[in-house]
Amino acid sequence: MTAQLPTDLLPDATAMGAVTLAVADLDRMLDFYHGAMGLEVLAQERGTAILGRRGVPVLVLDQDGALAHAPATAAGLYHTAFLFESAADLASVVVSVARRYASRFQGSSDHLVSEAFYFADPEGNGVELYVDRPRDTWSIANGGEITMGTLPLDPNRYLQEHLTEAGSLAVTDAPATVGHVHLKVGDIPTARSFYVDTLGFAVTATLRDQALFVSAGGYHHHLGMNTWESRGAGERSPALGLGEVTIELPTVDAIGALSERLASKGVAREYDGRELTVLDPWRNRVRVRVTGAE
Description:
Layout: E1 15-16, E2 19-23, H1 26-36, E3 40-45, E4 48-53, E5 56-63, E6 76-84, H2 87-100, E7 105-110, E8 114-120, E9 126-132, E10 151-152, H3 155-162, H4 165-169, E11 176-184, H5 188-198, E12 202-207, E13 211-215, E14 223-226, E15 241-249, H6 252-264, E16 270-271, E17 276-279, E18 285-290
Parallel strand pairs: 2-5, 6-9, 11-14, 15-18
Antiparallel strand pairs: 1-15, 2-15, 3-4, 4-5, 6-11, 7-8, 7-10, 8-9, 12-13, 13-14, 16-17, 17-18
């Protein structure tokens, strides 16, 4: 395997944009993401709601009553991870969700690079709420990979230490972004071939043949992929759950360069000169757009 050339890598300023979910019950999902998590409803019409913080979209809910849930063994979404700026902001959101959806709590972990709480939304989509540890505290292993782990994180102690009086009364309105998206895939070599060798992310961590973490600009991961439930999964059929993942690049020229790289590798894509859409090997739809574009 040859090393990636700088021209093959996505720009350092790459980030994740809004995730689209196909949902069965829009009102129920709005109660979770708006009512409990505190995301603002930025727009809503004809069965579609766009949610975010301070005008920045992070989630699109698209109601489709004709779709059913895919089996747990199918490829698709493992979780959407919402990143907060401070431990106090994270604690405020966690306690708000836990009060209304205690049964949907799935656990909490110290990942060395971040501290995270996990829930499932009312339709079973995974949700991670997290805050990063300072980047200068991250450890780089000999092979250049970022050291991540899964250590115990006591949720009650965390809330006691970080929940402010204001945060205990009302969910914070501080900024939140999609820090990363974690996907279920059929196998790791195919995922690496597409997301690293073709799209241009860099590998930041691996877990044998079970998981792969990739990013741009040295972040711990913008995308995670695992086979824990979905090993051997083939292409997705239309189903509830993940509709689209958005990757944001800093310039139109960067998207054009990616389009050329995909074309050179024979990868089918749609490109209108401003946005690009491509399907990964499991037919997860990936949209690439300019950061902050309307």
